[in-house]
Please model this.
Amino acid sequence: MGSAKLPRRLRWAVPAAALVAVGGVIAAAQMPTAQASPTLPARTAAQLLTEVAAAKAPVLSGTVVETAALGLPNLSGNSASLTSLLAGTHTLHVWYGGQNDFRVALPGRMSETDLYRHGGTEYLWQSALNTVTKITGLPAKPTGVALPAFTPQQVAAAVLAAIGPSTVVSTQSNVYVAGQAAYQLVLAPKASGSTVSDVTIAIDAHNSIPLRVQVFGSDASSPAFSVAFSSVTFAAPAHGLVSYEPVPGAKVNAINLAGRTFNGPMSPTAGKGKLPDGSPLAEAHVAGSGWTTVLELPASVLNQASLTGSAAQASEGAAALQALLDTASPVHGAWGTGQLITSGLVNVLITSDTIYVGAVEPSVLYAAAAASN
Model:
């Protein structure tokens, strides 16, 4: 087992508003494999990191399985809704012909949500609402504005971009994922206080792209989050599978993001890296560092249950929010009183004026609350 240290900081915090509004990412259950470990040329952790950073995403078609089991309530009866990604197992279909030519489909029992990208335009089709959201003014590189991170590549990119001195990076035994031989990188915190034991990334041996990401809680033998290809073909998808065709009779909502700054997935901001005036998220800030980072948000974000603004989505977001709040327990300390929401990985402390959230132990949230008083 090799190891390497990296120079950048790791920040692991998940905004509560994003969890409610777009479905979040921290989830459970390991993808089993009956195949023996593949024999591959030896690679150190540092070599794997370099190869992943240099790799170009190949064209492909595949099926991605995302499993969430955080002990949270069922947040939606519609498995094609974005908030439903917080619990249970979900299957997504991916067709990737290039960074500006792809489609992702999230099928439900009686509905489907599809994201298309063509050039600088994205289309979000939601059959349950019979609506299409047309998003223009996007940067050349996709940012995941319409949907949260939904592929192993996106999740791994977010994790790898943030690792730093508080992280130990090592390797694990080789595995097969979706029939592809893969190396495994393991990221783990050095200090206590985080609810994360480690993050394991399976990397395709031939294309150097992530095929699976698993997040393990500090007291769990199976992952608290898994997103992985269950099947993948490295060939250009047929044009008809990725081309968007207007849906007759569908309501079209237009969003122009020209002039905004993008700092990462789900972060379109106005002006020079700032949110629009009056947005509660503009008041957010970060406490701590590394794996014990805590994001502090004004309690007013609880009133923002939808990012898109449609009545149906606002209702869905409000229902998901209430389901989460119903799991809260009253807590108190020298910092004051509040409500604590716990899950298999992310914990949230809600006080009268501030929300503290992170993949950290409750004691870390309490310390952040005390420090801000």
The chain has six helices and 21 strands.
